[in-house]
Design a protein that fits this description.
Layout: E1 12-14, H1 15-22, E2 31-36, E3 45-56, E4 59-65, E5 72-73, E6 75-78, E7 84-85, H2 95-99, H3 103-107, H4 110-121, H5 127-166
Antiparallel strand pairs: 1-6, 2-3, 3-4, 4-5, 6-7
Helix pairs in contact: 4-5
Amino acid sequence: MRSEIRVPRLGEVRIGDVRVAVGSGFATAPYVDVLVLGQVGQRAFAGRLHFVDKPSGRGMHRQFACPACLEPRGVLFVDGNGGIGCRRCTSRRTRRQLERTCRAFRRGGGSQEDELLRVVTGSARKPERAQALACSMIEADRARWAALQPDIQMALDIGRADHGKKK
């Protein structure tokens, strides 16, 4: 079992961080009192979170009981109104879920950026794959920049011509 506390993120509380903070009493504690700071402009959550045992593999794991749906969850999020809940109950979506249907994500390199992030931060880090992805992203950006050059030059010429007429 790891015993490290990662940098806390605003607006969420993780079971691993609470396990380390509570220490040896974690296995028997029925609840924990927490203060979770919200994102900028959100109200914080201060209250009691109960633990439940979640069947997993051959044993049980301690998880938070989501106050809204009572399901076992490893991460709870501040909902912005002073409450807290799981991803489903707070309608929290990942960046990929929000962006994957956008044109810029599909055509503007967003999918490659997402894949690069997963390769670099994933458990099976692959430096060769990350380097290949980064190089392809740089080349695609250079190609898009080259394609924009005639439009940029035309806009600059129009701006110079309009500026010369005003004098």
